[in-house]
Design goal:
Helices cover 26% and strands 42% of the residues. With 132 residues, the protein is an alpha+beta fold. The chain has a single domain, classed as Nuclear Transport Factor 2, Chain: A (Roll). Strand 4 and strand 5 form a beta hairpin. The longest helix has 20 residues. It is globular, with a radius of gyration of 16 Å. 14% of the residues are buried.
């Protein structure tokens, strides 16, 4: 089982690395032909690898991906990312359902950063940047 988990984690890491370098074929190789991608905030569903790839390929912004964490087991994996669109960071959670080594369903949530409340300053510390 640990070997399977390591292989899935490596595939997900490669997916995000391919996203960062703009390799759309490698980025979408992780999806099953009939995969579903849901964006709950916009109410959109993309059905099939070809449609998932087409909608991402047409994105007009310059995008960068910083992975904070990939965690999961069995057929359910979660990636925490910061996706930067034209220099503006957006925090993202990607929930991937995996069967046979391929993503069959992904749900991706997006949240823009907001300023911390001054009243919490004495209680909080900054979250380290990825890789630190």
């Amino acid at each position: 089982m640990a070997r399977d988990a390591a292989a899935i984690r490596a595939r997900i890491q490669e997916h995000w690395e391919a996203s960062e370098r703009g390799d759309v074929d490698a980025e979408h190789a992780i999806y099953a032909d009939d995969a579903i991608l849901d964006y709950p905030q916009s109410g959109e569903r993309f059905r099939g690898r070809a449609k998932i790839q087409a909608q991402r390929g047409g994105h007009p912004a310059e995008r960068h991906f910083a992975i904070r964490r990939i965690t999961g087991a069995g057929g359910l994996w979660v990636s925490e990312c910061v996706i930067t669109y034209d220099g503006a960071p957006t925090h993202s959670i990607s929930i991937m359902e995996i069967a046979g080594g391929l993503v069959t369903h992904e749900t991706q949530y997006f949240a823009d950063p907001f300023p911390a409340a001054p009243s919490r300053a004495a209680l909080a510390e900054p979250i380290p940047e990825p890789g630190r």
